[in-house]
Specification:
Blueprint: H1 2-21, H2 32-54, H3 59-66, H4 69-81, H5 87-104
Amino acid sequence: MENFWLFLAYGLVMLAVPYFWSGARIPSANALPSLLSLGVIPSFCGFYCTILALQHIEAYKTQVIESSEPFFSALFAAMFFGEWLTDSGMCASLAIILGALITSMPDRRGVPIQVRPIGERE
């Protein structure tokens, strides 16, 4: 749990710099619970689900599937807010999904064939 708080603090510092640099206002106290839940719940749940996935599949497959997050973010933005991707964003989304599908397919290599010289008996 100590790492969780370190990650949270690091993220807060890294996001605070561009936030204040842009001249944005500090949110009201009424918005803070919502903002904190947006930061804590997805971060904690995503980290927890990644750890669970690592127990069941290989690390490279977990990472590729986890990298599909931008695709689903764009999909939900289109569905709920009417925000559509540009052509380059569509190409990138397609590459993400194809990569996730290819790496999550089961290995279909056959059993290796053992070749013996003609006339050799088993």
